[in-house]
Protein: Nuclear transport factor 2 family protein
Organism: Plantactinospora siamensis
Amino acid sequence: MQLIEKYLESWNTADPALRRKLIDEVWAADGTYTDPLAEVTGPDQIDALVAGVRQQFGGLEFSLAGPVDAHHDLARFTWHLGPRGGEPVVVGFDVAVIADGRIRHVLGFLDKVPA
């Protein structure tokens, strides 16, 4: 699913201006992101969250760990965060709620995190 691929691309984009452009394209203006470590609303907070994760895990890349399963306005997918082609450091599972072609909500779960 192209929207989810662009979503992950925004997490992988180091350039702040390009990252914000992707976030604005992918997310609804009132979009929310919730996982065990964060709960944010709107593009400014989402952008700040992504920037913080990039700073913490510099040099690592988000990738899909399998196909995106989607129906109606929902998508679920497993992702990896790790070195390109290497063993993931973090594994997660997200559910995205989509409205009008943009992500409205992401509910994230962390299956594997570093100690």
Summary: Residues 2-112 form a domain with the Nuclear Transport Factor 2; Chain: A, fold (CATH 3.10.450.50). Helices lie at 2-12, 16-26, 42-56. The chain has a mean pLDDT of 97.
